[in-house]
Amino acid sequence: MLLTRVDLWRVLLGASLLHWCSTAAAEESDAARLFREGRALVVEGRFADACPRLEQSQRLEPRLGTQLNIAFCHEQLGKLATAWSGFQEAASTARRERDLAREQFATARALALSPRVPWLEVRVAAGANGDPPTILLDGAPLAPSAWGKELPVDPGAHVVVATHTGQERGGGEFWQTTVVLRESEHANVTIPSAPARAVLTASTPTLAPATRTASRFVYELGAFVGYIAVDTRQSTPVDDPSSIQTFVQDENDTTQLVSCASVPCDYPSIGASSGFVVGVAGFVGYAVAEQVGLGLRLLIGPRLGGGALAAFGPSASFPLWERLRVSPALLFGTATHVELDTVTIPTPTGFNSSLQRLHGSLGFSIGLGAELSWTLTSSPTGSVVLQATPLYLYGSNGSAWSLPLGAAYHWN
Prior knowledge:
The chain is α+β, with helices and mostly antiparallel strands. It has helices at about 5-45, 45-60, 65-75, 80-95, 100-115; strands at about 120-125, 135, 140, 150, 155-165, 175-180, 185-190, 210, 215-230, 235, 245-250, 255-260, 270-290, 290-300, 305-320, 325-345, 350-360, 365-380, 380-390, 390-395, 400-410. The protein folds into three domains: about 25-115, Serine Threonine Protein Phosphatase 5, Tetratricopeptide repeat; about 120-210, Immunoglobulin-like, CATH 2.60.40; about 215-410, Beta Barrel (Porin), CATH 2.40.160.
């Protein structure tokens, strides 16, 4: 049976579509294969081998899932700035694709990495004459628009090179320095004015020191409000004992004044009471390792209704999970409270009583505490955190426990 012209056109069109689909499937298969290989290497912990495969898969077929895996791979290799930028780009992609779950995941990872990213600022000395230099950061040209601005970089060594651009200067490299940055550090380098002729060659490099602006000291300051319960065994009057007084008549109908300044009054134990406490909390420490600090923690504030809480002592701070940190502390201090109770005044004819404000104090106390902090927002210089600091104090005159809740700013 002979094919009509219409049938022949349909066959050729179908063959063309089949060929196009086969070619597209083959390209997709290469991207999928590279992705599967990269993911398998990630599971095995071979991140250095996994990243190139995932990146090649992304070049063949850009996908949000691959983009997230590449950022995760860079994070595991310690390339924090690269991973941070990757998660930010993935969050933007997810936002465009309206993939809320992946957008939230990428945003959370970028937020967690942000305080760990090192930053480098490259400056050019003012008053340079002639053509501006060409600046290379790790071998890549640094655009003039990036000069004088902090740039995120991965932890490790970074080489900054300045070369002549004008022919009258003879061309060539005239300045070079190497900056080694740890996590969370900030540094800046200032490139001097170019000399009249290039005097530095590749065989005789001269290193110029980088100016570090970061410190390994960390600071934290915040405010809190919380619940406190104090239990004391002995008390003293808040007011002057001479103001606690009574008038009595003896058997001769003579009136006389009796006060606690002249007779031994009985100040009862005001026992246990509870209330609210407000105050300030702080931490000053030194980063002995990445994300781990040792220092001194302080909580101090008045108790509403009378009394106070004061505690300080050595503390360690380290991450527990992503945005959650824990800071156990050995505490020294005291807690006091003021309550109304009946004071018994002995008299020649018996006993009288008077309702007075009594003060109870633990005296010098020792205890334990632990701060749990959750990072709300982060920036290159620090982060805003929510805090809970449960603590317990024991002294010679009783004990107290408290649960302060608050917010603070943590400088890196």
